[in-house]
């Protein structure tokens, strides 16, 4: 399916769009190498980032939230990628899946674990906190909620603060998956 919105060329951006464009690129540089480039050879943003330029003020706030859930939570890299992959699988978000399956491998998840997340199957994890993250993320991604039992189990395993961060992370990636789907972003 073709994209519904053409990727914006840097030369065509308004001042507000250009300011956000520059912040997005600066943020990407600050966080280190990415498995997939943020921009193509012409400087057009890829993935969810082009959409953020459509409403620079909202896009800037969304990017700040993205930075917080990616880099300023109590999650390990493995826990974070388990949760993100769970959302990508549930939402059938191929862009999110491709980017975060690569990140998950870099965080030490095995192909067997990654494919188990995609299939919604039992996932062989040795760390009980990873198992708790995966279980809670699966229920959140599937239903948008946690049963009382799941809430109690996740709170016992992760603590209330980390559970709050998990709810926020899952919600953020569900939002990004929705934007990618509606705008028909594939790369």
UniProtKB/TrEMBL annotation:
<dbReference type="InterPro" id="IPR029032">
    <property type="entry name" value="AhpD-like"/>
</dbReference>
<dbReference type="InterPro" id="IPR003779">
    <property type="entry name" value="CMD-like"/>
</dbReference>
<dbReference type="GO" id="GO:0051920">
    <property type="term" value="F:peroxiredoxin activity"/>
</dbReference>
<dbReference type="Pfam" id="PF02627">
    <property type="entry name" value="CMD"/>
</dbReference>
<protein>
    <submittedName>
        <fullName>Carboxymuconolactone decarboxylase family protein</fullName>
    </submittedName>
</protein>
<feature type="domain" description="Carboxymuconolactone decarboxylase-like">
    <location>
        <begin position="56"/>
        <end position="139"/>
    </location>
</feature>
């Amino acid at each position: 399916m073709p994209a519904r919105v053409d990727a914006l060329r840097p030369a065509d951006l308004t001042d507000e769009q250009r300011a956000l464009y520059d912040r997005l690129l600066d943020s990407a540089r600050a966080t280190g190498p990415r498995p997939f480039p943020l921009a193509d050879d012409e400087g057009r943003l890829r993935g969810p980032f082009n959409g953020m330029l459509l409403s620079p003020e909202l896009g800037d706030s969304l990017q700040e939230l993205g930075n917080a859930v990616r880099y300023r939570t109590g999650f390990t890299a493995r826990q974070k990628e388990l949760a993100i992959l769970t959302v990508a699988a549930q939402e059938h978000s191929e862009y999110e899946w491709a980017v975060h399956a690569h990140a998950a491998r870099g965080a030490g998840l095995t192909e067997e674990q990654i494919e188990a997340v995609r299939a919604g199957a039992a996932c062989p994890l040795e760390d009980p906190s990873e198992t708790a993250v995966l279980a809670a993320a699966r229920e959140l991604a599937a239903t948008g909620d946690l049963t009382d039992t799941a809430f109690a189990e996740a709170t016992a395993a992760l603590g209330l603060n980390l559970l709050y961060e998990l709810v926020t992370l899952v919600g953020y990636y569900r939002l990004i998956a929705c934007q990618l789907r509606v705008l028909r972003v594939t790369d």
